Give the backbone structure.
Amino acid sequence: MNIFQELKARGFCFQSTGEEEIEKLLTTGRVKFYVGFDPTGSSLHVGHLLPVMAMRLLQKAGHTPIVLVGGATARIGDPSGKQTARPMMTIDEINRNVECLRGQLSRFITGDVHFVNNADWLCRIGYIDMLREVGTIFSVNRMLTQESVKMRLENGLSFLEFNYSILQAYDFWTLNRELDCELQLGGQDQWGNMVAGTELVRRKSGRTVHAMTIPLLLDASGNKFGKTAGGRNVWLDTERTPVFDYYQFWRNCDDSEVRRLLLYFSSLPVAEVDALTAPGSNINRAKEILACEATALAHGEAAAREAFAAAGRRFGFADPEGRVTTTSRVAALPEGGAAAEIPVVKLPRMEFEQDSGVTVAKVLMLAGLVRSSSDGRRLIQGNAVAIDDVKVTEPAAVLRASDIPASGIVLRAGKKNFRRIVLE
């Protein structure tokens, strides 16, 4: 299959300005395409990775990615998918985040690639110049029909945010003019902004460019993909999400999601993914491969091997020989090697020194293993909680400082979620 057909087969295509035209564009020449990332934080999380994986596929097929980090648009705030305005950040915060995101994205996108920051052009153009240059092209009536605008009108949309679509469109026109960019990829909530960009390019230069959106990724429960059972984002930053936790996030995915996640987040051929997830196959082995592939992409092969080995030693291997055997990048359990440590959660000692102590249910919540203390109590009632391999049977069980040695305790929720609790 050609690259466009592969993108469709893997589930990356949601909306486009014309499938036949984009397929022809991608199969008859080398195309420059871009994806934008606003630096609203210092780290990407798993939910940001879908367009990154599409970029990798296109680059592998010979096309040239342009990675845009929005140092200017982050000062405005994208209203798409938001019920309220984003908090305003300082310029220094945005600049620091730009560097952090660029470093993370450069792990995934290497080789022939353009890294750009839209502050380099948007922050240099005057307000009157911008109005004269593009103001007559954008219809307010049409802008009001965009989903990102309509869903915010009831709660209030600031004029600042209303301008976001124009700035994103200006990015596409600039990249088309300066780098000959012909295609933009983005999430499905970006459709209105992206179409505005194709229209601006057509009206200003007479050229036809294209846009294609990637579907919103939801987990098996219908929630946005990329959160732990405790409701926390799974970050690429190892200070926020240790490598072992990152690996376990993928390893613990729902059985029904394995095929889709392998198609999205691994480079394995579609036929091999189908074989790994066919009825009667070893689904836990497929999960190991998914976790290895995803962790190797984010943190390197050595880190993925360590996490694979550590998880196998603690929980056992799906493959009796302890190996991941297909064309997966992590080929086998390494000889020796240090196991990835159980993630450590530091909690204030003074709370545990109080006469009442702290309930185990609350500690489960503080450790990010459940969403609430009531969820923790239900987990205890279900015989699914242990401290240092000793089952906790009382929903009201309490921990005091004297119960927790200097080395900490290992708190387990379910079969595979662990935290070492240390007091400080």
